[in-house]
Write a structure and sequence with these properties.
The complex is a heterodimer of chains A (about 190) and B (about 1100). A three-stranded antiparallel beta sheet of chain A has the order 1-3-2. A three-stranded antiparallel beta sheet of chain A has the order 4-6-5. Chain A has nine helices and six strands; from the N terminus they run αβααβαβαααβααββ. In chain A, helix 1 crosses helix 5. Chain B is α/β, with parallel strands linked by helices and about 1100 residues long. Chain B has 40 helices and 36 strands. In chain B, strands 24-25-23-26-27-22-28 form a seven-stranded parallel beta sheet, with helices on both faces. Chain B has a six-stranded antiparallel beta barrel with strand order 16-17-20-19-18-21. In chain B, strands 33-32-34-35-31-36 form a six-stranded parallel beta sheet, sandwiched between helices. Chain B is globular. The chains are: A alpha+beta (about 190), B alpha/beta (about 1100).
């Protein structure tokens, strides 16, 4: 479960070392895609070190270890699995309050705000909005289909909840805006007073 | 073989034997069919046989020696497969206790003089069991690697569906084939290149539309070049057509099925060219991929299709076309390379001389055919665990005699599923840790379970493999009159594109029906000659038949149409069964020693009776006001299910199984909506729903869309649009979600075809990435949409109708180690799985009691039924039904469900026929049966005219299907006429649509339809069908025709399964009428196998009488109605 305090704790723990999602994600429940999306971690996509090079605690037990061993198949995708802490990550490790700004600037912020324009939205509406977003990117002729961020959206929503900006209701089926920052708040209707 | 064919073959054998005797010491080419039985002890090097004619007259003793040797032969002994393979076949038959003679097509034999001076006929070359048909493509596979054929065709090893595959079903090849086929037909017919180009592009477009779902495989979108090729090669193809055929008079036969009964080979050549000036026939095999190609010994180039083309040439030779030529046309990039068979690497490597009748060609074909027969039927291993494992020691199958002369120089392991699954240890392409001694190391119970079901599936397959031989060697009249699988004396009334309408003067009475696959042949020929065309029946009339053909037929005097079977479901069931064996053992991680049953994954242990499933738990459920208490309890139990566990939900008729499934799927999706990513390393998705039929899958989708429209963007209906699909369901298929149909229909393929296709693929992939509920049939486990996906929850609907191997398909998409949840929904008191009538189940071992199997069980016993017996604690029964009014419900409940079934609401309980008619502004005809109680029994016991016709079609093929009872049909027409004819004409059809008539016999249904039409054309709207086809449907009024009425109290095979009656009567909502002879069903007939059914029928009629006493039913004499 991603909440600011645990994120801060994780970033401190990573320090200047290498963080592998196969080790940290199951242990902390914090989605690395979200941390990367927030600019807190940077994926290592070239010259990815083998697991023993960064002293992974799961050495000898991890099913993914072979993927990073010298001589492993070049066809096996390895990207987006090992990360370093980004400068923003170091800043959040020092001050968790900085996270709110990054959350507001996250690429999913607009999509969530738009879905919450009536003050609440079904989780299915949010998931559909993500699908429409992806389809729009295909239609726009983007060179490749953008990465799917469904789990990232889930993690993002839970972070919003942890920040007290939204609340899940109706057995988790509905998301209600509680205290969204002004620039993410639903637009006011004509005639309404701010 | 029967009738004239037997007589003719017997005479031919007698003549051949005589010919042999007259040429002692000189080998003779015979090509005749004989029957043989081994004499004395079987020895591998010298086999002594008793030879018989087809009508079982003794010809004498003969022998077969290794290496085609015979006494007095002076030359060197070449290696030959004939004797070792025959030895293995005879040995296997002996072990199985098969005593009927074995058929051999003797090609070459000699009468030799032994040292003692005795004359001994020696068989040199022969086809073993020619009635068993293999295709040319299968022969090519045997030539490539017999071990691969053993693993894939016999054992049933398939690719792991949890791994993405790089191949996408060769859509590129399909597109080229279809385009080329159309272009060739158009050019030869009219010589117009531009029209041929249009036809080509249309062919490509059709394939792309049809196969778009497969194209959307993740990796298939990679090489765009792959999709461009069909468009890039069009100019070359048109140029080639012009170059070859411009100004020439010829006839093309496209994709025709042709068959050599004497060789046991069938084929479907891409094209046969017949010059009208009398030149030789030219067979063309088109190849667009070289995955399984032969390497040229001199140039090193690889070329595919050689053996296939050679086999087709041999088929034509055996049919009398001695001058036929064969060519492999390879399409590579934008080029066509025609490769005459003489120049093919296969011919060059084996140094075959095609200019003469080289016997080595026959040896090559016969070897592939005989070995293929022995291997694909598992004759050389049977179910001996040691032999099954030892088979994998050598791809040349040492057990079958060792090194065959005519094999490829090295097996194509790269494309072999047994290599990918690490089962075959011979090659070098293992994907993981090798599974040493799979069969010996598998737990005993798992192996016994696998072998028991496997044996039954293979027995079913045998009948289909022998079908073509049966059609060719049985008089058409017998096939039509006794078996109902042939319709003769048909005239071609019209040919509209590929739709052909055939008519005849006599009424058509047949087992053939819509959607059956048939072979259309001029009556002057035998089925399977190149003049036969395959097709699918589109419509059946009383004297008319509409067939969608694969190729247009020429106008002939008269035609015959033969049934060649429907969609073959055995291979995927075999694969599901074997996948369970392989995956269960592999996932234990144990290698090099015997695996204990306790080490298997939990779900496997549950299925094998080693461990009990958990007691159903009760997880919190979201509010679901439209579910009743038992549905809510089932929903809570399913949501509480832990990975590796099983839940059974029994849903009697009308109890809202589909609603429950929709709720479960939607709730589970909601709880896991943000837990999956379309392109994660392990692509886990929330829910997979597999059903036994397309209809049920469509209903689940509709229920989801109706009840929970918010989940629509995440629901994917597996498969392509079908003509009978609801439009809303069709829109949930991946191709439709991507807008493929419209986009491809509108795209200018010549300009930007590949680009348009590529965008569509990306769009479809995006929809696929977001899919959270996948719905399809059990047969779609290997479909493109599901490849690489595992699911947290797999629900099997209609599980009571699925065979056990079919149900095992559901396990293939659980996460590795079966770490997912399995929910089976069905009702073992409704129809069981459909299997061949001829299935004789193997005995049930005593030890199988631990599996929940009992004496008399077979493939017809569903996993649901077995597990419900084994684990009653894991079974939740839905008891509130929303279909039948109270009296009908009581009848069903008291007879079949121990009185547990009740109407779900008061409205349902009190619904009446009068109420329904009133809603339509009508009233019930006063004084008729329709104005009384809702349950009516019209008895025919005292009606002398109401006797059934007896079984009509015999010969072991559905002997009961043609039973009828004209008087019952008349009574039913009177009853329904009385209801409908009294109504205003403009409303009659509306009422008729609410009526269903059910009998188990198709012949009776045809008769009822005709009687109804005579009463009123509006009654054409009433659905008249068999019980099996009615399951899952309902009507306001149901009339059941029992048909069987006879002095012997014969209730027939169909009624002997009492579950049919449950299904038939539980289709009714407001009124139920049963017409039939009560005493035939309730008298003791002294047939123990019917005892259980008769107990149910007695209870059924007694319950009607009880209801009558309460004023809720009425019993009438049929004579009182006329």
């Amino acid at each position: 479960m991603a909440d600011p305090r645990r994120i801060q704790q994780l970033l401190s723990e990573i320090g200047e070392g290498i963080a592998c999602r196969h080790y940290h994600e199951p242990r902390t429940g914090i989605h690395f895609g979200l941390l990367a999306g927030l600019g807190l971690l940077t994926p290592i996509d070239t010259r990815i070190p083998p697991c023993d090079a960064h002293g992974c605690p799961l050495l000898g037990q991890c099913e993914h270890e072979a993927d990073f061993a010298p001589g492993s198949s070049p066809r096996q995708p390895k990207g987006n699995r090992k990360f370093r802490r980004a400068p923003e990550g170091a800043a959040v490790a020092a001050d968790a309050a900085l996270l709110e700004r990054l959350v507001s600037a996250h690429r999913l912020a607009r999509l969530v705000a738009s879905a919450l324009r009536d003050g609440k939205a079904s989780i299915f509406t949010l998931a559909e909005a993500l699908l429409e977003h992806d389809l729009a990117q295909v239609e726009s002729g983007a060179a490749s289909v953008p990465p799917i961020r469904r789990r990232e959206l889930g993690a993002y929503l839970r972070l919003l909840e942890a920040l007290g900006w939204v609340r899940f209701e109706d057995d988790g089926l509905t998301l209600r805006a509680v205290r969204l920052p002004v620039h993410l708040a639903p637009p006011t209707q004509p005639g309404e007073t701010a | 073989m029967s009738g004239a064919a037997t007589e003719w073959a017997s005479q031919a054998a007698e003549r051949a034997w005589q010919q042999l005797r007259e040429s002692t010491g000189e080998p003779q080419w015979l090509d005749v069919s004989i029957l043989v039985r081994p004499v004395g002890e079987l020895r591998p090097g010298r086999i002594v046989l008793e030879a018989l004619t087809e009508d079982e007259h003794l010809l004498g003793t003969c022998a077969v020696f290794n290496g085609e040797w015979y006494p007095g032969y002076q030359g060197s002994t070449p290696y030959s497969h004939y004797a070792p393979t025959l030895y293995r076949v005879l040995l296997a038959r002996q072990r199985r206790g098969e005593t009927e003679p074995l058929r051999l097509q003797v090609l070459k034999a000699v009468v030799a003089q032994t040292r003692s001076g005795r004359l001994l006929p020696v068989l040199l070359k022969f086809i073993i069991a020619p009635e068993h048909t293999l295709t040319g493509a299968q022969l090519e596979q045997v030539y490539g690697c017999p071990l691969r054929v053993f693993y894939t065709r016999f054992v049933g090893i398939s690719y792991d569906v949890l791994r993405s595959r790089e191949s996408g079903g060769d859509i590129r090849g399909r597109a080229i084939h279809e385009g080329y086929r159309r272009a060739a037909a158009v050019f030869v017919a009219g010589g117009d290149l531009e029209q041929a180009r249009i036809a080509y592009l249309e062919g490509v477009r059709r394939v792309w539309v049809e196969w778009l779902t497969t194209l959307c495989l993740k990796l298939s979108a990679g090489p765009l070049q792959d999709h461009r090729q069909p468009l890039e090669v069009v100019d070359e193809i048109l140029d080639y057509c012009r170059h070859r055929w411009e100004g020439k008079a010829l006839r093309l036969y496209l994709e025709r099925l042709f068959y050599a009964p004497s060789r046991g080979i069938s084929g479907r050549a891409d094209r046969i060219e017949q010059p009208l000036d009398g030149g030789p026939l030219r067979i063309v095999e088109i190849k667009t991929s070289g995955m399984d190609a032969e390497q040229d010994p001199q140039t090193g180039d690889r070329h595919p299709g050689g053996l296939q083309a050679l086999a087709y040439r041999e088929i034509l030779y055996s049919l009398g076309e001695q001058r036929a030529e064969a060519v492999v046309e390879e399409i590579r990039g934008a080029r066509i390379k025609p490769l005459p068979l003489e120049q093919h690497p296969l011919t060059r490597r084996l140094r075959l001389d095609l200019s003469t009748r080289d016997e080595r060609v026959v040896d090559l074909i016969a070897q592939a055919r005989n070995i293929g027969y022995c291997v694909s039927t598992g004759l050389f291993t049977g179910y001996d665990r040691y032999l099954l494992d030892r088979a994998g020691d050598d791809w040349r199958l040492r057990e079958l005699g060792g090194s065959f002369e005519f094999l490829r120089d090295w097996p194509p392991c790269r494309i072999c599923p047994a290599q990918h699954r690490s089962v075959c240890l011979y090659g070098t392409k293992h994907a993981g840790q090798p599974l040493y001694s799979l069969f010996r190391y598998a737990p005993n119970r798992l192996f016994a379970y696998w072998a028991w079901f496997h044996r039954q599936l293979k027995a079913e397959e045998r009948a289909s493999r022998e079908l073509l031989f049966h059609l060719v060697n049985t008089p058409a009249e017998t096939l039509e009159q006794s078996e109902g699988v042939t319709i003769g004396r048909l005239r071609l009334a019209r040919q509209d594109g590929l739709d052909a309408i055939f008519t005849r003067d006599e009424r058509i009475e047949t087992r053939i029906r819509e959607d059956d696959r048939v072979l259309v042949t001029p009556e002057t020929r035998a089925p399977g000659q190149i003049f036969s065309v395959e097709g699918t029946v589109k419509a059946m009339g009383e004297r008319e038949l509409v067939v969608r053909l694969n190729d247009r037929v020429a106008v002939e005097e008269t035609y015959r149409v033969d049934l060649v079977g429907g969609y073959d479901m055995r291979q995927w069931q075999l694969e599901g069964l074997t996948d369970f064996l392989v995956s269960a053992v592999a996932s234990t991680g144990v290698r090099g020693r015997k695996v204990q049953a306790e080490e298997l994954p939990r779900l496997a242990r549950i299925l094998l009776g080693v461990e009990r499933p958990s007691l159903p738990g009760q997880a919190p459920t979201p509010p679901a006001p439209d579910l009743n208490e038992t549905q809510r309890r089932a929903l809570a139990a399913a949501l509480a299910l832990q990975p590796g566990d099983l839940l059974l939900i029994q849903g009697p008729p009308g109890t809202g199984k589909t609603s429950l499934i929709a709720h479960l799927a939607r709730t589970f999706l909601a709880r896991h909506l943000f837990d999956y990513d379309g392109r994660a390393e392990r692509d886990h998705r929330p829910v997979l729903i597999l059903t036994n039929t397309h209809r049920a899958a469509d209903e689940v989708v509709l229920k989801l869309l109706d009840r929970f429209p918010e989940v629509a963007p995440f629901v994917i209906r597996i498969g392509a649009r079908r003509s009978d699909m609801d439009e809303r369901v069709a829109r949930q298929t991946l191709a439709e979600r991507a807008g493929a149909r419209e986009a491809l229909e509108q795209a200018d393929l010549a300009q930007d075809g590949a680009g348009a296709l590529f965008r569509l693929i990306r769009r479809a992939q995006t929809c696929h990435d977001h899919g959270g509920i996948f719905v399809g049939t059990l047969g779609s486990a290997d479909s493109a949409e599901l490849r690489g996906l595992s699911f947290e929850l797999v629900i099997v609907d209609e599980a009571g109708q699925a065979t056990e191997p079919a149900m095992l398909q559901a396990l293939r998409h659980l996460p590795p180690g079966y770490a997912g949840r399995l929910v089976l929904v069905g009702d073992h008191r409704q129809l069981p799985p459909v299997v061949s009538d001829e299935l004789i189940p193997p005995p049930v071992p005593e030890a199988f009691r631990q599996l929940g199997l009992e004496a008399g069980d077979s493939l017809r016993t569903s996993a649901f039924e077995r597990l419900a017996r084994l684990y009653p604690h894991a079974l939740i029964t839905l008891t509130e039904q929303y279909r039948m009014n109270a009296p009908i419900c009581t009848l069903v409940s008291e007879t079949f469900y121990e009185g547990r079934l009740v109407p779900g609401t008061r409205t349902v309980a009190e619904q009446t026929l009068a109420g329904w008619l009133a809603d339509l502004g009508l009233s019930t005809p006063p004084g008729s049966v329709w104005s009384g109680p809702p349950v009516v029994l019209v008895t025919t016991e005292r009606d002398p005219g109401a006797r059934d016709s007896g079984a009509r079609f015999i010969a072991g093929r559905s002997p009961d299907e043609a039973r009828d009872n004209p008087r019952e049909a008349e009574v039913i027409a009177t009853l329904l006429g009385g209801l409908v004819c009294s109504l205003p004409p403009e409303l009659r059809r509306d009422v008729a649509r609410g009526i269903g008539v059910i009998s188990p016999y198709r012949r009776q249904n045809t008769r009822i339809r005709q009687e109804l039409l005579r009463r009123d054309p509006a009654l054409a709207e009433a659905r008249v069908d068999t019980v099996d086809r009615f399951q899952g449907s309902e009507r306001e009024v149901i009339v059941v025709s029992l048909v069987n009425s006879n002095d012997e109290a014969a209730i027939g095979r169909l009624h002997a399964d009492w579950r049919r009656m449950n299904v038939a009567i539980s289709r009714a909502r407001r009124a139920l009428v049963i017409v039939g002879d009560r005493s035939t069903f309730t008298r003791d007939a002294g047939r123990p196998e019917e005892d259980e059914a008769r107990r149910y029928y007695r209870a059924f009629f007694a319950e009607i009488e009880r209801l009558e006493r309460q004023g809720q039913a009425r019993v009438l004499e049929s004579q009182s109605l006329s």
